């Protein structure tokens, strides 16, 4: 085979295209989920279902997304994903609009900050339930819709939201996040297991592991850690995460460009996790 044949790729211009794809984004009404949903729509998704606990937040997010210059539609479907019956209701609500799903971003999550001695068992359980169990249940319940149109050439995608707190050591001290760190480590390993289980069914499973992004959930901990400027200065690339970092990574993993990535995770922290904590 000639070198010219090796480098020929007639459809490279569409390598990041998601034209016509149907996506579900949990925790999609704000922060990282909303950034991802914006990227999915602008990459060509025809439908992006936005779900989170509060109906008003979902509606406001969809209004903002539907104002973007793209042909797809954001659809609000609020649900409490900590409850399995609510996940079932979400699936049925999605099925009213489509007979398949191509992309599932399992992003819903929560955190809790307290000292080791003051971390209540109930808080630990709540964080683990939402960040790990509900992620598994959501993927399990959406699996039939993800299988529907999936092929080896065009597999469906599952993306979970982990964290660098699940790779390195999370926050310790007065606002320690033991449950959050443990849950995000669990999400990473759950994703690896799902990649082996669902990969042969043409569903690719990967995770993103963000560091600090200026979001509502992270804002309190960021202030307690010194604020945006201090955290940015401490990062090897001297900034925090930005919306396009999430949007671009999610689009890559869901597109043809990411079609051979399965069971992996992408760290989005500017290199911060590589630094030893003194």
Descriptive report:
By secondary structure, this protein is of the alpha/beta class. Helix content is 43%, strand content 13%. The protein is built from nine helices and seven strands. Strand 1 (22-26), helix 2 (31-42) and strand 2 form a beta-alpha-beta unit.
Rg, rounded, reads 19 Å
CATH class: Alpha Beta
Distance between the termini: 54 Å
- How would you state the average pLDDT, rounded? 90
Going by helix content, strand content and strand pairing, the class is: alpha/beta
List SSEs in N-to-C order.
HEHEHEHEHEHEHHHE
Number of domains: 1
Q: How would you write the strand order of the largest sheet?
A: 3-2-1-4-5-6-7
CATH topology description: Rossmann fold
Main pleated sheet: 7 strands, parallel
CATH architecture label: 3-Layer(aba) Sandwich
Give the count of helical stretches.
9
- How much strand content do the residues show? 5-15%
The count of β-strands is 7
Helix content: 40-55%
- Rough outline: globular
Poorly predicted spans = none
Q: What do we call the CATH homologous superfamily?
A: NAD(P)-binding Rossmann-like Domain
Summarize the structure.
The chain is α/β, with parallel strands linked by helices.
Keywords:
278 residues; alpha/beta
Task: Present the secondary structure layout.
Layout: H1 3-7, E1 22-26, H2 31-42, E2 47-51, H3 55-66, E3 73-76, H4 84-95, E4 103-106, H5 121-148, E5 156-161, H6 178-198, E6 203-210, H7 216-224, H8 227-234, H9 243-254, E7 265-268
Parallel strand pairs: 1-2, 1-4, 2-3, 4-5, 5-6, 6-7
Helix pairs in contact: 2-9, 4-5, 5-6
């Amino acid at each position: 085979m000639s070198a010219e044949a090796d480098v020929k790729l007639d459809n490279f211009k569409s390598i990041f295209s998601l034209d016509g794809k149907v996506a579900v984004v949990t925790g999609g009404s704000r922060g990282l989920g909303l950034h991802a949903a914006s990227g999915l729509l602008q990459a060509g998704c025809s439908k992006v279902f936005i779900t989170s606990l509060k109906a008003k937040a979902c509606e406001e997010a969809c209004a903002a997304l539907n104002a973007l210059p793209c042909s797809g539609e954001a659809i609000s479907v609020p649900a409490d994903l900590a409850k399995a019956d609510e996940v079932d209701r979400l699936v049925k609500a999605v099925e009213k609009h489509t007979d398949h799903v191509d992309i599932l971003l399992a992003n819903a999550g929560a955190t809790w900050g307290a000292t080791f001695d003051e971390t209540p068992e109930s808080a630990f359980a709540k964080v683990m339930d939402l960040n790990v169990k509900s992620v598994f249940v959501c993927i399990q319940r959406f699996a039939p819709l993800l299988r529907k149109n999936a092929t080896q050439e065009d597999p469906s995608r599952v993306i979970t939201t982990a964290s660098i707190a699940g790779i390195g050591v999370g926050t310790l001290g007065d606002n320690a996040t033991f449950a959050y760190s443990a849950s995000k480590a669990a999400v990473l390993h759950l994703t690896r297991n799902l990649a082996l289980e669902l990969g042969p069914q043409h569903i690719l499973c990967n995770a993103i592991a963000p560091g600090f992004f200026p979001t509502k959930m992270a804002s309190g901990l960021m202030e307690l850690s010194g604020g945006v400027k201090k955290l940015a200065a401490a990062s090897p690339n001297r900034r925090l995460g930005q919306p396009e970092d999430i949007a671009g990574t999610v689009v890559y993993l869901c597109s043809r460009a990411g079609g051979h990535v399965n069971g992996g995770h992408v760290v989005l922290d500017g290199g911060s996790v590589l630094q030893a904590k003194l």
